[in-house]
Amino acid sequence: MVLTREEVTQVISIMNGVPQLVVKLLYGSGLRVMEAARLRVKDVDFSMRQVTVRSGKGNKDRVTTFAASLIPLLENHLKKVKVMHDQDLAAGHGTVYLPHALARKYPNAAREWGWQYIFPARNVSVDPRGGLVRRHHVEPSVINKAIKTAASRTGIAKHISAHTFRHSFATHLLQRGTDIRTIQALLGHSDVSTTMIYTHILHQGGEGVPSPLDDLDV
Question: Can 80 be counted among the known catalytic residues?
């Protein structure tokens, strides 16, 4: 399922707060919703306008584009997250889950600002992996619920999910003439044949053939 640019605008304009910001990343960078939820502060490079996705599908890292229009919005959001992080530190918490053996290799990294989640959960909780009180990332279900609510308000007769914005990202890049191999890299597909699926969207109508009814003046 793919949305038109106008439909993307409709859905996003109805949303607000963190869910809207996440959806702008899904569409603007071609992210999966879990990839967006797991983003760390250090993963977004404002000067290079790129996002690094770590341990994506297939446990692979990749670099994708970052919309310039998101810079002031995300910078303002991160100011609020930084205040929250400082408050957690003052309360004796402030650590974040680190992947693999990083927590053992860099014992102080879990408290560092760069490793914090860009979209943290509203409340701290006990991590069952070690019993520490810490702030996890936002639950994807929160984003999905917000998308569902916004989609229903638009009246668009399409099944719209978080993944729809990733599909739309790829399709709209193709429509702009972006090379298929470039889109493959941005999406993190192992095989270009997976990316080629989006090319069928470019042919409006069945097999790209216009209906003969349009030739009649009736």
Answer: no
157 in a structural domain: yes
**Candidates 57, 77, 111, 136; catalytic one:** 57
What are the pLDDT digits (tens) for 16-41? 999 999 999 999 999 999 999 999 99
| Residue 163 belongs to some domain of the structure | yes
Q: Give the tens place of pLDDT for each residue, 122-149.
A: 988 888 777 778 889 999 999 999 999 9
Q: How many of the other CB atoms lie within 10 Å of CB of 13?
A: 11
Domain presence at residue 75: yes
pTM: 0.88
Q: Note if 163 is an active site residue.
A: yes
The answer to whether 57 is a known catalytic residue is yes
Q: What is the count of structural domains for the chain?
A: 1
Contact 182, 65 (CB under 8 A): no
* CATH classification of the domain holding 163: 1.10.443.10
Residue 110 main-chain phi, psi, to 5 deg: -60, -20
Which structure tokens are listed for 58? Answer: 């297939």
- Could you tell me the residue range of the domain that residue 157 belongs to? 5-201
User: In this structure, is residue 28 part of a structural domain?
Assistant: yes
198 catalytic residue (yes or no): yes
Amino acid at 41: V
